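User: My advisor, Dr. K., asked me to get a structural model of this assembly before our group meeting. I'm new to this, so sorry if the format is off. These are the inputs:
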Amino acid sequence: MTATLRRYPWLLAYMAAFAVWVLTMALSSGRGALGTLDSASILAVFTAIVGLGQMFVIAAGNGNVDLSIPSTMTLAGYLSVNIATSGSFGVITAVFLGLATGLAVGLANAAMILGLRVPPIIATLSSGYILQSLVLSYAHHSTDTPNPILSHLASAHFAGPPTLVILFAIAAFASVAVLRRSAYGRTLLAHGQNATAAYFAGLRVNRVVIITYAISGIAAGLAGVLLAAYAGGAALDIATPYLLTSIAVVVLGGTAISGGIANIAGVWGGAVFLTLLQNLLNVARLAAGWQYISEGLTIILVLTLFSRRTATRV
Amino acid sequence: VTLMPNYLSAAVAGGQFSAPLRPFRGLIGPLISLLALLGMILCLNRSAFSYFGINLLMLYSVPLMFAAGAQMFVMVTGDIDLGIGPFIGLVNTIAATLLAEAPLWGVVALAGLVLAYAAMGGLIQLRGLPSIVVTLGASFVWLGAAILVLPTPGGAPPAWLNALFATSPPIVPLPLVIAVALAAGLHLLLKRTAYGTVLRGIGGNPAAARRAGRSVLCGRMVAYGIAGLLGVIAGLALTGCTTSGDANLGSDMTLLSVAAVIIGGGTFSGGVVTPIGAVLGALILNLVGSVLSFLDVSSDWQIGAQGLLLLGTLGIRAVRRKARVAA
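Assistant: The format is fine. Below is the predicted structure of the whole assembly, which you can bring to the meeting.
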């Protein structure tokens, strides 16, 4: 059992998600079993998107981590609801705003990390706070309701499952292909396993770091736009939980926190688990404080029990 | 790794000082920044330079000084604490409720928090865990607990705590007295005691510390324990300054504490920190906020400007390092 889990750490996330689901059903005496899964899977998509971006960053190893994700999400969310208010053209504008915001933040992060040699944790922490100031001063503008077409899309279903889940599945398979087959993906994992060796092997390390932070930024930007559309508007604290959950799903999903090993299936499992856990705490009528506590303890517990001991520390 | 090696940072810091002054060589930059800021404030608002004015100007830097001290004890081991802000918020809520209602249980709760910090350091060492993920996870535990203790801002801190931060010592305002005492205390502890050297050794070269017969586990637990203690004092100071409780009040302290340590001359490489610099860094960051408000800059931009200041400091260091390497 433990040996299997060590070999396939992402199984743990799915098992935990199933256990939480069964527990929820027991508490609500079986009512709305599939409805719970349906709504949880939509909410899990937002976590999974930013988790996917964070996974690329963490897979780069060497202390790479993106702490600017929540602020990027909030900024993109605000921009999209204020600018792309109506029409099908608004959908394109909203998506473009998400892409552009995320790309700009990602490139700025990479510039600080590569150009100024600022440790990633500090570069992204600072850029997150700078973005937070930007959002605070921008949020004084009146907030419109999000684009109705985008809002509809965010909670729509396509041939059974929610549309967002299908879109995420496509993104996930594309990510698997990129990681396994592309030069970028192979270089990323090589850099995560041993940056010095990758450099001396003549791999284009800097380019990989730039692309990686751009991916994470874009994922955060798009997630912010979708979240604002789903939630019916942007709010200052709309993305606060995603700082921890983006990292939590990566750790839960069996991606090595020291880099070099990435697991995309695990990101989805981790996202569903965390969403169902939150749902369970809601069903059990526990206060909001307990949700934070249980999420924090879960990540520490999983890390303690299942992390591979490595020489390099983040 | 993008961190600056220890030998390089020592070279950058320069060696032209005579031996007794060497521990203070990194403080020139922060001191100049502090004086420049004070000069700016003098130009903008002359009335700030009275006993009362300085007290008002610097009172809010007191919680940050202790937060910077806490962050410094984590950073000296080569780790980073992303949970110190919410931790200070939790102490703030406990101080505004339990400490006044049931003082004994309040003290027990705060002591428990210090032990929890030491245990967190032990866990990180024992299992070889990345400090940023553990402290980030812990930050949600602190935040959740703070919301449970005090769901909505308010509460009433004990009268003695409010009175303590309203005291007026003769001639020198309270924040300056605390700053000098804290800087001296931290400096003596880290740079003048045997165990301070051990703690710096654990961050600088854990293998060497182990071979010298020192327990890295014990050292990390002590460092985190002291960080927890300073965090508790920071939370009490924050409560004394604001005379109320708010679970989210400490959230900016995470970035500010790291920024204070770095602006004061500390590095990320472990073992290299400047305790006096960290206190100066806290004063600088707080004064930057004051200058911005004197200039009528919206308070929305305060935390962003402080983040830029951190990046600017690191940018200048990177440029100077490149110049050194090229020379």
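One thing worth pointing out at the meeting: Chain B touches chain A through 52 residues (CB under 8 Å).

User: Perfect, thanks a lot.
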